[in-house]
Amino acid sequence: MGLPFDQVEELRLYQQTLLQDGLKDMLDHNKFLDCVLKVKGKEFPCHRLVLAACSPYFRAMFLSDMEESKKREVSLEDVDPDVMGKILHYIYTSELEITEQNVQDIFSVANMFQIPSIFTVCVSFLQKRLCLSNCLAIFRLGLMLDCARLAVAARDFICDRFALVSRDEEFYQLSPDELIAIISSDSLNIEKEETVFEVVMKWVGTKDRESRQKALPVIFESIRFRLMPSDYLKDHVEKHAMVKSSPELLKKLQMVKDAQKGKFTVVKKKKVKKSSEKQGKDNVVNGAVDEEEETEEDGLPGILNDTMRFGMFLQDLIFMVSDSGAVAYDPTANECYFASLSTQIPKNHISLVTKENQIFIAGGLYYNEDSKEDPMSSYFLQYDHLDADWLGMPPLPSPRCLFGLGEAENSIFVIGGKELKEGEQTLDSVLCYDRLSFKWGEADSLPYAVYGHAVVSHKDLVYVIGGKGSDK
Fold first, then answer.
1. What is the C-alpha to C-alpha distance for residues 90 and 96, in angstroms, rounded to an integer?
2. Rounded to the nearest 5 degrees, what angle is found at the Cα of 285, between the Cα atoms of 282 and 287?
3. With 80 as the cut, is the pLDDT of residue 397 above it?
4. Which residue, 18, 76, 362, 438, is most buried by CB atoms nearer than 10 A?
5. Is the distance from CB of 246 to CB of 253 less than 8 angstroms?
6. Where would I find the beta strands (DSSP E) of 240-375?
7. Is-contact 106 87, C-beta < 8 A?
8. d(CA 448, CA 466)
9. For position 267, what pLDDT does the model report?
């Protein structure tokens, strides 16, 4: 009769710990060392057996006929010594310090040495820290390292925030294949397909115009022109300089116009089809290998795809926020929906909805007794509609009240107001929050100090209306 599962697991963990502690002790006391890894002038003594057991990369190296399999010293190129030290420390101890500064380097080296446990930890670390400032870099890293889990997570993050991410300069450094991977997704959070066309044409004109223009016929297959109004297709797409100069693009657009009239172009698409079960059995009997067959079937070209994007199904709601939670009101159905419950939303806050439907709250105070020099701070929160929760953003650099909130391009402006210090001085200063870098700065001051005013944003301009001055 075997041992209960709990005891078996306990014995296994004990043996693993005993083995790992023993290996680390031998490394620390220079026992049975038979290999030295040389990384840019720094040497790491270790055991071949340990490296081979943990890494298919080293196993293949030491079991091959390569020179490294016979030499005591192994030189490694394109590896940072500090990263190599951290990975060796993990191999011998299961301890790994990952930070935002070193995660990409550790990830790349773990991928090169084929150490799945480190790879998985790095993927989870990066997924949890996806944000506007790093989503494109993480997406490209996932593609480069052929990590589907990371690339898909980053792509979904980008698609959900497409309006914001597509304003980042880094977006226009994407390769054609990277761009297609994003804009071909059904989960793109856009209200109009025209947005995709305009982003693509801006991407073409940003750099390497000639080579990118050659990629347009393939990229156009991922733009759903059938979702665009006929007038937009005629006045903006067909008349675009890069489109009307390309017979191939005009031919594709003609297919779209024909489809809008009910005339569909059918193309032959190759499809890989496995041989039938009966054929497979016959092949096995005859000693042959069951192979896949390539067949052709009729289908619509990609440019005729009219599947609606995720953002086209969204409803317009009125968001009402109090100090205890938030409620969303649907004016069409005359119904209210519970959005979030929170105890961190301060009273007397000021809210802002950006044109990308991001919701921010600023103002409201908390008193920090540990900070004697500057005990008062102002909240700055953003609503995460995916998790129905409020995210703490970098707080306002200086607490103030009775100010206004506005937005333009990628920035949020805290305008005027009163200083929350002795004397309550009326302010003319303007704080500026960069939504891409997540940093506060200062913008040009107002012509005069004002508080209790209204602020309206329209077409990347911010208007200040009414209010009281310091002399009133």
1. 5
2. 110
3. yes
4. 362
5. no
6. 267-274, 292-299, 318-321, 325-330, 335-341, 350-353, 359-367
7. yes
8. 12
9. 65
**CA 212/CA 224 separation, integer angstroms:** 19
pLDDT number for residue 369? 67
Strand, helix or coil at 101?
coil
Q: Is 29 left (phi over 0), alpha (psi -120 to 50) or beta?
A: alpha
Residue 438 identity:
F
Confidence of residue 389 (pLDDT cuts 50, 70, 90): confident
User: Please, which pLDDT band fits residue 151 given cuts at 50, 70 and 90?
Assistant: very high
- First-to-final CA distance of the chain: 91
* 118-122 contact pairs (CB < 8 A, 24+): 118/87, 118/90, 119/147, 121/96, 122/98
Q: Residue 114 has which token pair?
A: 């084929």
Look at strands 73-75 and 35-39 and give their pairing: parallel
Other beta carbons less than 10 A from residue 189's beta carbon: 20
Report the C-alpha gap between 188 and 158 in whole angstroms: 8
**What pLDDT score was predicted for residue 280?**
46
86 CB burial (10 A radius; 0-12, 13-18, 19+): buried
Query: What would the pLDDT profile of 165-219 be if each residue is shown by its tens digit?
Result: 998 999 999 999 999 999 999 999 999 999 999 999 999 999 999 999 999 999 9
Copy the structure tokens of residue 270: 């190759």
CB 307 within 8 A of CB 224: yes
Dihedral of CA 210/212/215/217: which sign? Answer: negative
Write phi, then psi, for 28 (nearest 5 degrees).
-65, -30
SS3 399: coil
Domains annotated for the chain, with CATH where assigned, are 161-258+300-313 (1.25.40.420), 315-465 (2.120.10.80)
Whole-angstrom distance, CA of residue 149 vs CA of residue 161: 19
d(CA 287, CA 182): 45
Q: What are phi and psi of 397, to 5 degrees?
A: -60, -35
pTM to 2 decimal places = 0.75
